[in-house]
# Entry
Amino acid sequence: MKRSIYTLAFSLMTTLAMAQEMPLYPSGVPNTTHAPNTENRSTDANGAERIMEVSVPTITAYPAPANNNTGTAVIICPGGGYRLLSSTKEGSDVAKEFNKIGISAFVLKYRIPSDKAQPNKTIAPLQDAQEAIRMVRKEAKKYGINPNRVGIMGFSAGGHLASTAVTHLKPVVGTSDTTSVRPDFGMLIYPVITMKDFTHQGSKDNLLGKNPSQEAIDLYSNENQVSTQTPPVILVHAGDDKAVPVKNSLVFYEACLKNNVPAQLLIYPKGGHGFGLNNKTTPDKWMDSVKNWIDSLGFLKK
# Structure
């Protein structure tokens, strides 16, 4: 018994030692007012970390084990209503699960939209997601990654960011960097999709402001932005989600069908919102479905 505990502890320390947090923009953050960095961290009752007021984005790498590296990578966008980042439950915990199946994971600490910290707060999260995709592709050789196997995952408001990344396929701002920002696949977990009447109001207010234009509402209602160029997508949601109605996933799935985008939809009858890796209402593990879906794309083959 003691040996197994020691082995588990050593494995955990090895994983933590491998995790490397890096600045997303080593040469300086774009679209910034250079306001004081007031980022702060706290933990909930279960010891899970939450990060607030992010103005300096980073990306933390969790490389796949050298003896089990499929060459596939995923960028993870934690949720938090565009108000905070649930960086453990919807970040590092998920990254470690991907490592177990040979996938390198990168947890994105994207900027929280802020009128004080960004001249244009609405585009800041997408800027960061697109830069993360560029970075992973440019660093692909370092991590043993195939640059054509880079996906993105998001939870809740992070799911809105991920759904924006899989539908808004041109750089949000002009750049001389020609590295593609189109993900090769997307995973949307109880995602905010729309900015219309069945949105999550807090996410909408934090991203677009209290009185957004109809143009902004339409632009960031990502069910409207699905096209034939949208990559394959899997969606996971609970039917009794009161915070982000399941209709968000339904309309995105329907848009995928309409545009012939390969899509899979997993809806649990119960589970509410924010269940992370473990929906306690069922013994089913949605990550098993995600693994099988990634395998069906051919991305678990070395």
